[in-house]
User: Fold this.
Amino acid sequence: MTVAAFAFAMSVSPVAASYYGWGTTVGVNVEDTTVTNNTSTNANTGYNSVSGSGRVRGTINTGNAVATSFVTNYVNGVTTTVTADCGCNGDLDVEVNVEDTTVTNNTSTNANTGHNSVSGSGNYYHYWYWFGPYTQGGVRGTINTGDATAVSDVLNEVNTVVTRVTR
Assistant:
């Protein structure tokens, strides 16, 4: 099972400005961003049982349990391009302000092939007769499980700022 959770919050891209003279200021503000991811991924081939009374014989064969979760957050990506085509060499201030960013990831990934049982009640006899061994009654069982694999991947790219000034 694959769960992909994507959160894109408050993305500003691109911001373009033109330079008109000496002492120009270009500003970009991004404030108060909160991202919360709650993901739960489970794969289960377990909790199987064979039971009874008297002569109980059984086999439990389970396959593989694979649980995979991917959480990716791109939050507050700011790209600013400022073009100054006047040919002047004055100061240019570019201010990018990103404040109060909170990212919370609560990720649970579980894979299980266990908790299998063979149970019952009864008598088990094993003895030799003149023709060979003899077995009667009782509880017998076989449990064969597959592999359990659990993988979680969390990627947070937060407050990435790219500023390009061309003259």
